[in-house]
Write a structure and sequence with these properties.
- Helix 10 packs across helix 11.
- The protein is built from 11 helices and 10 strands.
- The strands form 5 sheets. The protein has a two-stranded antiparallel sheet. The chain has a two-stranded antiparallel ribbon with strand order 3-4. Strands 5-6 form a two-stranded antiparallel ribbon.
- With 347 residues, the chain is mainly alpha-helical.
- It starts with 14 loop residues before the first strand and ends with a helix.
């Protein structure tokens, strides 16, 4: 089984974690209108997946011919052609994401995102990028690579399909399908019959591990370096990455150096509109405010404690210097007088 994006069947590209511990392409999250990014600086996490309507999940991509994930539709008002964002990118379809100043429109919110199928792309753009040929090539590619693929829309159906099909790929795979290294083959579908399934490393909490596509990319990049047990090293690095992400509640390990003033803190990544929740939201907001006040009080106490430690260490240093001076005067009185004489003699 493969770790795939929840919005499309493609396994390459930049993945970001959702606030429900799933994985999604950043490109897909930016183009699906109901989905949003919790932090525009770090481009994560992917939020509000539950707001995607059921009708969008039922659409079939006309490029890969797969009914899975969530598709967008052609912006032509008379066309209802549906396609995955990453499939459209492979076909070089018209996907305008930047405004006149070169900024991403999805982040600025000033320009509606427009995407067109191969029949309604602007003529100049279609001719320049060879969309007709790219679309034919993409359809042949997906016809070859997606042959025999079976998708499941729930864990129960995934387990049922996996029991009877060897090439099943789940849209929401169970924990046992989380893969960390090349040594781990397909779960529930061993290559050799009659052998028990291999052990797969996973977290006790069931948090997702790094996608197999990312592992393969890093492992292939390290192939040119003389690293002993390269695959084991990359697998251990993937485990470390996963544990750190879980400890940081999904926050990125590497942050950009140039931070915006509007950068959210890690606690604000899960912020909600409490006013729209009614009375229950007011109680939640009150509890969060009390928690913040208690946190501020604890930080003030920590600051006072740190200042007291600094004063204590300064007093200890002063006492140590006084003790050293006392010992030098009592036991080595000549040395203190001899040192200035030697300095003058060598000068």
């Amino acid at each position: 089984m493969l770790q795939t994006c929840i919005f499309c069947p493609n396994t390459d590209g930049a993945f970001k974690q959702t606030n429900s511990s799933k994985w999604a392409h950043l490109l897909c999250a930016m183009w699906i209108p109901e989905v949003s990014l919790g932090n525009h600086t770090f481009m994560e996490p992917v939020m509000e997946v539950e707001k995607v309507p059921k009708t969008r999940w039922r659409l079939t991509c006309y490029i890969c011919n797969q009914r899975m994930g969530a598709c967008i539709q052609c912006s032509n008002k008379n066309c209802y052609q549906a396609f995955h964002v990453t499939c459209a990118r492979r076909c070089r379809l018209f996907l305008k994401m930047k405004n006149g100043q070169g900024a991403l429109a999805v982040l600025e919110g000033t320009l509606p995102l427009k995407a067109f199928c191969d029949k309604h792309c602007p003529p100049d753009y279609a001719e320049k990028n060879g969309i007709a040929q790219a679309t034919r090539d993409a359809k042949r590619f997906y016809k070859r690579t997606m042959k025999g693929r079976i998708w499941a829309d729930s864990q129960a159906s995934a387990l049922q399909i996996a029991a009877t099909h060897r090439n099943a790929i789940t849209e929401h795979p169970p924990d046992e399908s989380q893969i960390t290294g090349a040594k781990v083959s397909a779960v529930l579908a061993d290559k050799k019959k009659g052998q028990p399934p291999k052990n797969v490393w996973k977290l006790p909490s069931g948090a997702p591990v790094i996608p197999q596509a990312v592992y393969d990319l890093v492992e292939s990049a390290l192939a040119r370096f003389p690293i002993r047990k390269r695959k084991d090293f990359v697998a251990e690095a993937c485990k470390y990455w996963t544990l750190k992400r879980e400890a940081r509640r999904g926050a990125a390990l590497l942050k950009r150096l140039q931070l915006q003033m509007e950068t959210f803190s890690s606690m604000e990544l899960t912020r909600r509109n409490f006013a729209a929740m009614g009375p229950s939201g007011k109680a939640r907001l009150t509890r969060r405010i009390e928690f913040c006040r208690a946190l501020i009080k604890d930080l003030e106490q920590l600051k006072e404690l740190a200042d007291a430690v600094v004063q204590r260490e300064e007093a200890k240093l002063e006492a140590a210097e006084l003790e050293q001076d006392f010992v030098d005067t009592c036991y080595f009185p000549i040395f203190k007088q001899l040192q200035p004489i030697l300095d003058k003699a060598f000068v």
